[in-house]
Amino acid sequence: MKKFLISFVTILGLFFFGGCTQTSQPQKVNSSVYGFSFIDAKVIAKIGNKVVVEIIDKDIVAGNSYIDKLANAIMKNSLFVIGMETTIDNEQGKISDIRGKELTFTFNETKLQNDQIVKIYIPKKTIAVVDFSLIGIDNKTLDKFAMEDMTTKLVQSGQYIVVERTKLNAILEEHKLADSGLLDEKSSSQLGKLVSADIILTGTFSKRGGNWIVNLRLIDVKTGIILVAINESISGKEFRWEQDKDISNMNEDFEDNELNLGWNINIANDKGSTSSGEIDNTTGANGTSRSYRIDYQFNNNNGALEFQNKRLRDVSAYRGITFYAKADKTTTIRACVKDKNFNDVHENKWITPVNVGLNWKKYEIPFDGLAIGTKYAAQNQGGDGNLDLDNIVKIMIEIRAKENGVNNINSVWIDEISLY
After folding, report:
1. Residue 102: which CATH number?
2. How far apart are CA 263 and CA 268, in angstroms?
3. pLDDT tens-digit readout, 65-115
4. Given its phi and psi angles, is residue 286 left (phi above 0), alpha (psi -120 to 50 degrees) or beta?
5. What is the pTM assigned to this prediction?
6. Are 355 and 405 found together in one domain?
7. How far apart (Å, rounded) are the C-alpha atoms in residues 405 and 8?
8. Which of 11, 194, 273, 280 is least enclosed by beta carbons within 10 angstroms?
9. What are the CB-based long-range contacts (under 8 Å, 24+) for 223-228?
């Protein structure tokens, strides 16, 4: 059997679990994704060589955000597809029908009995993410952006193989399949055959007021029949509340006597090391009156301090980061950014060292001057090795004990952080 193809399944999941009618913003909580290879079921009927089992419900994603609920719905409803061959208590069978939680298996012969609790092996499925056509939306990365958290959760679950995005886009462009926007049945069947797919999900994404309007068609590649046609309006706050990318400049000058959203201090490998930060009302760069002072003391050679901003950003319109800095002694700091590539759940860390002296000085860090952190990359395998400026997950100033020594209390001042 050809492997199942799913595209932008986040929206389709709405219709497995009763539609999208709630519009209030959910409370943000930490979510977890669980991977497993088997799922329990109970035999509820046996008719000749056919056995009907009922899946025992099991969550894959734990969390109450909108995207968590969608991810859970999608995964739970796409663990199996009709025509898939798999094992049920070590007997080889083929899934011939799916109705909610009930699966019908066809066997050549079977020893399974009514009311028997069985374990079903879950084969991996191939997932292909095809860009939606955008109507009346200037942000050309919106469709990719909207699918990002879902794709990460799919990979983390271990249930799916993600089709290479560039391969799909190359086929679409080569065969002029995306020129007309929403793919029709003929184009979908053609694309499905080119990528060995059983089903194509095609659609458009548009904005109307504060809502996102989604038009979907789920098409059987072999027959060209539209299996599902969907038109749905989804609240913008509900759909994107976790994922809004900040495309504005940072402009962090501390003159309002508070940190902007997303900034904090983190100290790693502490083991007795300490750090603190506060707005200093006695000094600022460029004749201003305020800056941010970081006090720290490393107690071991592995200590590292991060003054970081964790807002999700698209900085592709800028050339780099600029800031003013000074220290109470000559200090080596590192300007860093972390990005997360769409096709990989791992982050890349990009750095450049800066020597800070006793007086205020302006530093400009061009993005194309950043180098990937080799030690970080070795300890965190993954990432594509390319700086993806449209998906920056962290911007930070880092101070490390290995470069600045231990057992001394020191201070660094930062001011006027912005993009240029």
Report:
1. 2.40.30.20
2. 16
3. 666 766 777 777 778 877 889 999 999 999 998 887 999 999 999 999 999
4. left
5. 0.48
6. yes
7. 50
8. 194
9. 224/185, 224/186, 224/188, 224/189, 225/185, 226/185, 227/199, 228/12, 228/15
